[in-house]
Design brief:
Helix 3 packs across helix 4. Strand 2 and strand 3 form a beta hairpin. The chain has six helices and six strands. The protein is 41% helix and 16% strand. The radius of gyration is 17 Å and the shape is flat.
């Protein structure tokens, strides 16, 4: 995980659910545990979560996973990302909304998503804020192209 990410405990996430006025059901708790246990896995889809649950012999259905992910992203516990392939992916949110989320490099051939940590847009944000009077809290950048593995295969 990058320095910009907060390492969460399940207890922290339970507190966020409660603060949002929701109960920590056994299903939600199990899904939250997956995000904590698999924190090195970024960009997990509902199907990824469901497959992990099945390997753990959980009886949580895919529809329940989708509902939980929708709620957890609505509450800001998870960040929902769309990489243009029709599949929503999720990861734990940082605790500080002022900390920039990492950016993504998306391979058009193999669909690999690579995280890019360096944020070079601070000056641009400041310029936009000065010129427009708009308070920017965060931004998201996606670069589409070809990864080094796909480029090497074509060479």
């Amino acid at each position: 995980m990058s320095d910009n990410h907060q390492l969460f405990r399940v207890e922290d996430l339970r507190g966020k659910l409660s603060a949002g006025g929701y109960k920590t059901t056994p299903q939600r708790e199990e899904i939250l545990k997956i995000f904590v246990e698999y924190s090195e896995w970024h960009h997990m889809s509902a199907e990824d979560i469901y497959n992990i649950l099945r390997k753990k012999d959980s009886e949580i259905g895919l529809a329940t996973v989708y509902r939980a992910l929708d709620l957890l992203s609505e509450l800001g516990i998870l960040v929902r990302m769309d990489f243009g392939d029709g599949c929503a992916r999720y990861e734990l949110n940082t605790t500080d909304p002022k900390v920039h989320h990492h950016h993504h490099l998306i391979c058009l051939k193999c669909k690999k998503v690579i995280e890019f940590e360096e944020d070079l847009l601070d000056e641009l944000e400041a310029d936009i804020a000065d010129k427009s009077g708009f308070q920017i809290l965060n931004h998201e950048v996606k670069f589409f192209g070809y990864c080094s593995d796909c480029l090497a295969k074509e060479a």
